[in-house]
Design goal:
37% helix; 8 helices; NAD(P)-bd_dom_sf; Oxidoreductase; oxidoreductase; disordered C terminus; SDR_fam
């Protein structure tokens, strides 16, 4: 059975994705800071037939990250690493003039440093995964212009963004090919590419995470490295960010999961995607 690590899996998008993978036959390593909600989620996942290792802890703790990867190894390896745990840096969000530097450091530690630490810990398992086929064996294009550049969707989509500088360097006549390997799915935000008042600290952290993921994709062409903007969601994180906003009309995290599963189903190439562009035709956007 394929194995995934999902951080921040006790609620929200992490829990919804974990449930979908469990129903597909995946085994799971899940974490969250609060033990009670995490164990409740784990019972639900086990009820769907998954083997589950539920480890409460903080992703900024190197020992905790090592334990997550060790648990995946015990389950048989690692095919998908989902960096979903996040921190805002201020609750509620504030303008940069009032942004606590300690809060910004916390946002960077959770959103940028911890994901890299987890990737480093898990890299050997991800490299040895054979779950995803090569780029050569699938149709890599999904939907309309899923890649998001600094100017929006106007950039021509390149289905093999890393091929020229990595596997085909000095081999211009060779076919595009990337060996089988695992995947890293990083949950990004439109705040990483758009300037919204009060979202500066969080957006800066997500922008750094995006660039970090892009470089990882260039350095590890055998892996898929996806960074996905899930769009608006009705989550506790959003409620903490903007407590005065009425979020009742925002989509539930479960509505985003089919878009994430399309990345797996199509063995999509590394890149930045939006859930809206990935959503299957006819999917309910609510």
């Amino acid at each position: 059975m394929p194995v995934a690590i999902i951080t921040g899996a006790s609620k929200g998008l992490g829990r919804a994705l974990a449930g979908a993978l469990a129903r597909r036959g995946w085994d799971l390593v899940v974490d969250a800071r609060s033990a009670g909600p995490l164990e409740e989620a784990a019972r639900e996942l086990r009820g769907a037939g998954a083997r589950v290792a539920a480890l409460p802890g903080d992703v900024t703790d190197g020992g905790h990250r090592a334990a997550l990867v060790a648990a995946a190894r015990e389950l048989g390896g690692l095919d998908l690493l989902v960096n979903n745990a996040s921190a805002l840096g201020a609750e509620p969000l504030v303008r940069l003039a009032d942004q606590s530097l300690a809060g910004l450091r916390r946002a960077l530690e959770v959103n940028v440093v911890a994901p890299l630490g987890l990737v480093q810990e898990a890299l050997s398992l991800l490299r040895s995964s054979s779950y995803l086929p090569s780029y050569e064996e699938v149709a890599p294009y999904i939907g309309e212009a899923p890649y998001i550049g600094s100017e929006g969707n106007g950039i021509a989509y390149d289905p093999y963004p890393n091929s020229e500088n990595s596997q085909n360097a000095r081999l211009s006549d060779s076919p595009t090919y990337v060996a089988a390997g695992g995947a890293v799915l990083t949950i990004s935000s439109d705040a990483a590419v758009e300037a919204y008042p009060t979202w500066g600290g969080y957006g800066a952290a997500k922008a750094a995470l995006d660039q970090q993921s892009a470089v990882l994709a260039a350095e590890e062409p055998a892996l898929r490295v996806w960074r996905v903007d899930p769009g608006d969601m009705r989550t506790d994180l959003y409620a903490a960010a903007v407590p005065d906003d009425d979020a009742s009309g925002r989509p539930l995290p479960e509505t985003v999961v089919p878009a994430l599963l399309r990345l797996l189903d199509h063995a999509a190439p590394s890149g930045r995607y939006t859930a809206a562009a990935l959503a299957p035709e006819g999917a309910d956007p609510r």
